[in-house]
Amino acid sequence: MAAAESYPDGLLYHPEHDWALIEGDEAVLGITWFAQDALGEIVHYEAPDVGAAIGMGEAYGEVESVKAVSDLISPLSGVVLEVNEKATGEPETINEEPYGAGWLIRVRLTDPTEIARLLSPETYRAHVAAE
Amino acid sequence: MQLIYEKSVPGRRAGTVPAYAGLAKPAVPAGLGRAAAPRLPEIAEPDLVRHITALANRNFGIDTGFYPLGSCTMKHNPRLNERAANLPGFANIHPAQSEESVQGALELMWRLQEILREVTGLDAVSLQPAAGSQGELTGLLVMRAYFADRGEDELRREIVIPDTAHGTNPASVVMAGYEVVGIKTDARGNVDVDDLRAKVGPRTAGLMITNPSTLGLFEENIHEIEQIMHGAGALMYYDGANLNAVCGVSRPGDMGFDVVHINLHKTFSQPHGGGGPGGGPIAVRGLLDPFLPKPQIVRDGEGAGAFYRLDRDRPKSIGKVRGWTGPFGVFVRSYAFIRRYGPGLREMSEAAVLNANYMLARLRDAYDVPYDRLCMHEFVISARTLKKEHGVTATDVAKRLMDFGYHPPTVYFPLVVPEALMIEPTESEAKETLDAFCDAMLEIAREAASDPAAAKAAPLTRPVRRLDEVLAAKRLVLRYAFADHPDLAAERAAASA
User: Fold this and answer.
1) Are B345 and B248 in contact (CB under 8 A)?
2) What is the pTM of this model?
3) Do B351 and B396 share a structural domain?
4) ipTM over the 0.85 cut-off
């Protein structure tokens, strides 16, 4: 069952509808409720390789829904430490719990100064309302 | 409806072949012969004919109803085309015949090339590619051969593509060995020229663009785009999927394009949508002519002394992209279609554009219009507000249209428009048909407010109800479940548990 619309406090957001949970010099990344709702039911998550370098604003993987295949845009630059195997095996988890069990990757940040460029929950909520 | 395997009765036959006598059994190499006969359905001829006819009656095509599938140009296929294609001189020849014995066929292809040169405003044509996607790949390979000939192939590795492009464009780019660089769309639905300027440089081999775009909008900055691309020494590729909007009105060659593919099966009427055959000729500027596929169809001499032949002496050609000279029956149909219009071909595009604008005007208050401009031969509206207010999505609208007897439009494309519905009426349709379709769309929008469950449950009146698209995408199994096959029902139950 799809989750109810929310954009939790405690996360930072990228305008391409991705979130980041900052944990020291690491971050957990995923897509927002808005993104999974626009995509529709996700049937495949093409994750990056562990160890891959990803760049802020660049594609690092793909999600396929019944409507389309879409690039995953990274909110921050980093090196992939871990891929969420539950999301690759059961991609509907991304629809069901976009901020919890449906997280996508964990990265070690290579440029923590980028964090300041992400959107606060309030700013992102306004961004979504204008979409 | 029963599957044909469910109608199968052991030993029953639609026809019997006499037992062979005095013939040796063919020698099959060891290991390649079947251990057991294939499990084909066993059925008598009347039941077979009825089965196939019942399937055909469930089909929906342009001959059964309105089919406004955006960017696919599902226009009427005049029966005159079939008559021409079935003329014995066209239907009963073989491509291996001598040139002397197929002068009429060669002349038709040559004339079609000449027409396509005029329609596109370019210098040379190859009829070989079998469809739009193969035309794209062929055009890109011709561009690569051109740059290789100039010693620039190592340098120019990128093709820029706007985010409204058909999905085949980036796929063809990758197949041709290039890298895709995406370009954004601006607030008016045009290519974002600043983004383009920032991404074009010495590594750029070319641009692939559809004009009008998949938003159904004419690219207003095409002149500036041309200056940016050619200023960087790059080439311009025109995806001809939307050529139906501009025939006889404006020409890709005049806009600055160097390569164009033409979808004969869309723009110039050829039954399609069921897997072909299609026709995807490309037209190119003179500088790319030496690299076109071979053989090329050429004419020696003029008037009564003219002789048409296949020119294989093309040392810089990228080679063949298809058997023989391409899909000949498609050429005959398209040639017949074009000649029926004659010099008035622009009426075709004018009627297509008028029809689309009429429908957009009727639908604009009930649906969102993401880019509010005069449209070309197709337009994109959105079910965004219906979804927000009533939970009725573009998919629901599309499925509900089936209950009204229409083929749904293209949905969720282009990707830049949420809940997109892309509608292309073509020039074929009467005003009554356009009105009836618009009435259905307006009724669906009203019903979304009063009874949203109806659209969510649609289709209600078709042979099958709403299909499980998620299951189909995740666990695609297309086979008959014989008794000795694993039980799919159990698997399905496990999957949905």
Assistant:
1) yes
2) 0.91
3) yes
4) no
